[in-house]
Amino acid sequence: MNVIDNKGEMMADVDHPMGMFITFEGTEGAGKTTQINRVKTFLEAEGFEVVTTREPGGTALGEKIRGLLLQDDMTQMTELLLMFAARAEHLDKVIIPAISAGKWVLCDRFTESSYAYQGYARGISLEKIAVLENLIQGSLRPDCTFWFDIPIIEGMKRVQNRGEKDRFEVENLAFFEAVSEGFRSLSKERFLQFYKIDALLSVDEVSDSIYQRLRELIAQYGR
Ligand code: Z5A
């Protein structure tokens, strides 16, 4: 796999094999975080070095930006730009160095969340988001995105006892239905990248489904 990074430089060639960039997407309570921890164990047992991380966040500055995004009032465009500001840091300091060193990066949410939340749910044009995606990422896209599909109500039930809600969690059902619709549309447009997970299945069944896809990726791309 040859990828041009956000500075227009080739990230790896045949003499320097790259790791894989795997993202986990879905609405709240879908089980992403639970599975990332299991996938890390699975991949390490297969002999890979694994980095787990999340968005917004993943760096010291990114985590500060996350705090603002989850708590402070802001315009929709500020929200979008802060997501990408945190992402620029994350790519340069964590994601690109790890992939270039041959590691597998497991990331809880990425740019597809910006399309789903800021685009489909908040209403910012998808074209504007695409401009930022190309600016910040170059041609870098996740090798695989596990999309955890779950009825909104079921996800909400799983996290209802968590305590104080953040700026996203207080949104209404229509907002989250729009987010879900966003992921559904993206899964059709990016069908080679997306892998749909029935997130209503048990934790073990969801893991099995993910491991099956990962075994295919390992067989396809080698070590
Ligand atoms: N956001 C954005 O707007 N734009 C962007 O570009 C980005 C993000 C990157 C923070 O995300 C917010 O940022 C997010 C979108 C926005 N807001 N929302 N909503 P976050 O990832 O921190 O928040 P989250 O997605 O809501 O996390 P979550 O609610 O923790 O969901 P999860 O990680 O998918 O679920 P979990 O923690 O693994 O599991 C939740 C519970 O369900 C837990 O008790 C588990 O034990 C249980 N669980 C897990 N799997 C199962 C199964 N299979 N069966 C039964 N119970 C299960």
UniProtKB/TrEMBL annotation:
EC number: 2.7.4.9
Pfam families for this protein: Thymidylate_kin
Keyword vocabulary terms for this entry: ATP-binding, Kinase, Nucleotide biosynthesis, Nucleotide-binding, Transferase
Binding site for ATP: G26, T27, E28, G29, A30, G31, K32, T33
GO molecular function term, any single one: dTMP kinase activity
Keyword Lyase: no
Reaction catalysed by this enzyme: dTMP + ATP = dTDP + ADP
UniProt function note: Phosphorylation of dTMP to form dTDP in both de novo and salvage pathways of dTTP synthesis.
Name this protein carries in UniProt: Thymidylate kinase
Species in which this protein is naturally found: Ignatzschineria rhizosphaerae
Top-level taxonomy: Bacteria, Pseudomonadati, Pseudomonadota, Gammaproteobacteria, Cardiobacteriales
Gene: tmk
